[in-house]
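Q: I have 297 residues here and want to know how they pack in 3D. Can you give me a structure?
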Amino acid sequence: MMANEKKMDKVKIKAFAKVNLVLDVIGRRPDGYHEVEMILQSIDLHDELELIPASTVSLAIKGQRLPVDDRNIIVRTVKKLLAHAGLASGVRILLRKSIPVGAGLGGGSADAAATLVGLNRLWGLGLSQPELERIGATLGADIPFCLRGGTVLAKGIGEKLTDLPSLPSLPVFLAKPPFNVSTAQIYKNLSLTAADHHPEVKRIATLIQQGDYQAIPRYWGNRLEEVTLELYPELKTVMDWLLNMGLPVRMSGSGPTLFVFGADWAPKRQAQVAATLRRKGWWTYNGFLKATGLEVN
């Protein structure tokens, strides 16, 4: 611990979800992971974590029924940081869960990132951002991004990050069907051939640097979409329905959440679309892009 770091008696932190503005899969690595290129974007949908010093490690969750033992990435993150810092401390964490699980929105990664930052403050560890990102990368590929947030180009397995200029707080509409998708299953079903069409990641990064974000939907893509849409035909039906309305729609991550990006559509029409989807059992969310991944209160 650095001498000038002060321990705190409570930390509250917001952990923001993400969407993939573009996701390309380059190939499979010898270690079994896939090499990707993608542009990740924070959105204002968030979970809230409250961390309080305690003698043991415990987790309570409001909003969704989830495991509170080592199956939960928050608990694994606490233990990883304790081992890294050589501490025998404890913490009581309350998670208010709003980001749907298994949705391709990075909720678990965002919670892990919030746990790292929250504990760094709570225990006065004085770890730098690069150190937190290195620890985060050992827990999950999206965690380093969630520690940064905003608009970021990610390569490798998602851990090699290049900051891009933040996009303005454009509207984003999310729609998730009443089922979850296994990322591992989607990657297992992905076939990579030399003839594959790849989305234009570099061009989109350039458009963002130039501030021409309206042109993003002309070049974006998600290489995992074809797999997920084939496995879940209902998803393709809804995606086609939204596309036929002239809306710029894409799937986030391995799915199954669809998102409409930056569309200038009438509130009444949006409300009708949301109501139609909710009648089918879908979850919907109306929000905005965000320039940060975490917010400490």
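Q: Anything worth noting?
A: The chain has two domains: 11-164, 171-288. The radius of gyration is 19 Å.
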